[in-house]
Write a structure and sequence with these properties.
Layout (H helix, E strand, L loop, with lengths): L2 H9 L6 E4 L1 H14 L3 E6 L6 H9 L3 E4 L2 H9 L7 E3 L6 H9 L4 E4 L2 H10 L4 E5 L7 E3 L9 H13 L3 E6 L4 E3 L5 H16 L7 E3 L15 H16 L5 E4 L3 H4 L3 E11 L8 E5 L19 E2 L7 E7 L8 E3 L5 E3 L7 E5 L21 E3 L1
Helix pairs in contact: 2-3, 5-6, 7-8, 8-9
The structure holds pyridoxal-5'-phosphate.
Amino acid sequence: MTEKIDRFINQASRPTPFLVVDLDVVAERYESLRRQLPAAEVFYAVKANPAPEVISLLIELGASFDVASPAEIELTLRLGADPATLSYGNTIKKQADIAAAFQRGVELFAFDSAEELAKLARAAPGSKVFCRLLVDNQGAEWPLSRKFGCERRMARDLLLQARDLGLLPYGVAFHVGSQQMDPGQWDGAVAQAAALFRDLEGRGVELAMVNVGGGFPARYADPIAGIDTYAQGVQGAMTRHFGNRLPCTVVEPGRYIVGDAGVLQAEVVLISRKSYDDQVRWIYLDVGRFNGLAETEGEAIRYPLRTPHDGGAAGPVILAGPTCDSVDTLYENAGYRMPMALAIGDRVQILATGAYTTTYSTVGFNGFDPLPAYYI
Ligand SMILES: *Cc1c(COP(=O)(O)O)cnc(C)c1O
């Protein structure tokens, strides 16, 4: 919670729920990552928060962008991004969308299969391509599972094939999983990337780039290591495995840049119990799984909460959203406690909600609108 957000929330009574994002925090996060990893290029992962205010600010600060869809490409270009600063990082693209991106000047594309590579050769001839490696996502609170990437031997063959197809085999990417709690997790992935570089060098292909992905955490319920520790984790792994022949390093932060910049203002709609001797209160808020808090799925992301009664006696609660779907239960097993004095109508602040909230919602399930947001 910044002073600016605090003032914004208190100066007027706006209908809830809404998100407010402090752009100073976004800028400060971007700059601190630049400072900590001076040799790396920062590609902001647009999906984390695609608000034009955020994108424009990051363009101004000199960021590049990881985009995943025609709409994300149009958005960044419309706001003034240079197409040469875009990385079409989704490994799942329609050929027509690849062609459209290529026409618009996008030069850098991801793949993780022979089939996708064939589309790139047809629709984006001569472009720079990088292969996503399948890596361990241990330690990540929001893992990306086996959906993306391929194993190293396949990556090697595909990058050779890329050359034979008239593309420019440019590098390797991976993602160690979102909200990665262990700064040591980059080591194994960078080791794989370095082995792939050597393997290909022996076959006449010199790669240029290692994209170490995102995964840098926001501050939720559990404490996290500082960004300096993460930077050391990444930089240390790069020098350990590449020695003094460092390739161009790319980072793709999403959550780290915008997560802590946002506060969600919500209201308590109902407090009830299921029986006369029930020790646990059910707290129903006007925001839930379907209008902004999708990442409470599996209780994976545990947001810190603030209430007007913090510091007083507290008791166990189950937190739920306002819709008529039981999936819209936020936290049942995560051990949340809230003040006994909490009352219907109280305002509750949900912290660190700047990432993966505003667009990560239904269009209006049960009549509840997507989350309105203010950028200040
Ligand atoms: C979502 C995504 C990111 C951002 O991940 P964070 O964990 O939010 O930093 C980076 N790269 C790719 C390819 C992604 O899909």
